Amino acid sequence: MGVVQARMTSTRLPGKVLMEIGEGISMLELQLRRLQTAKKLNVIVVATTVNAADQPIKDLCDRLGILCFRGSEMNVLERVCGAAREARADLIVELTGDCPFTDPILVDDIASRFLSLFPKHRYVGNIGQGRTVPWGFDVKAFLTEDVEKILSNSPTPYDCEHVSVRFYDPKYTETYHPLVVKYEGELNHPKLRIELDYAEDYEFLKILFLDLMPTKGIFFSAQDVVRLIQSRGDYHEMAQRFMY
Fold this sequence. Notes:
CATH superfamily: Spore Coat Polysaccharide Biosynthesis Protein SpsA, Chain A
CATH topology: Spore Coat Polysaccharide Biosynthesis Protein SpsA, Chain A
Order of helices and strands: EEEHEHEHEHEEHHHEHHH
Number of helices: 10
Strand content: 5-15%
Number of strands: 9
Shape: globular
Strand order of the largest sheet: 5-4-1-6-8-7-9
Number of domains: 1
Largest sheet: 7 strands, mixed
Helix content: 40-55%
Distance between the termini: 30 Å
């Protein structure tokens, strides 16, 4: 199962997931339509909240034929667990709605690695203690039963906000044996930031999308995005300027 965490009440950029990136398509719709091509996701669930402000997210999911689970606004861990129960999923591939360029090829790669390496590794992702991929292509895979155990055993506020962070915390290495996939070549650009948090990010993502659309459509790869940024000094500068 792929679970996409999305809500309208972001403190840094309210309503960001439904901002229009191109004519007639929002950031979240772009992400979901791209994820529908992932071969390793038997179901996609958007985990949003019971807040009335998130009804447009539910409406979008209904239009796209995607399952939507509505749960706690403040406890993301609880919300993701609820989405997994709703989908009766044993494996969670965690994704976030502020990454509209999520690459389904990377999703399939991480999911495939998890399935082949479990139970030796109970977490496989392309972020953790160290990363190679640009910010915005994050993919993390783990078992539903493991997040359920965290939820039922006095999770910290940080656990509740950052669902999978415990899996690659050095204190729990012997429990989860996390594997952080390190990519080489074109994907090895950890200082590039291609995600949606601020108004400046929004403008940058729109520029990239409109540049890619004429030749790639909506199904461009992570490599396509990186190549475009690397080919233009102004894009490369923007992708680094927006780092936290």
